[in-house]
Amino acid sequence: VQVAESGGGLVEAGGSLRLSCVVSISNFDEYGVGWWRQTTGNEREGVSCIKWGGTSTTYADSVKGRFTITRDNAKNTAYLQMNDLKPEDTGTYYCAPDLSFPCTARRFDALGAWGKGTVVNVSS
Question: 101 and 5 in contact (C-beta within 8 Å)?
Answer without folding.
Answer: no
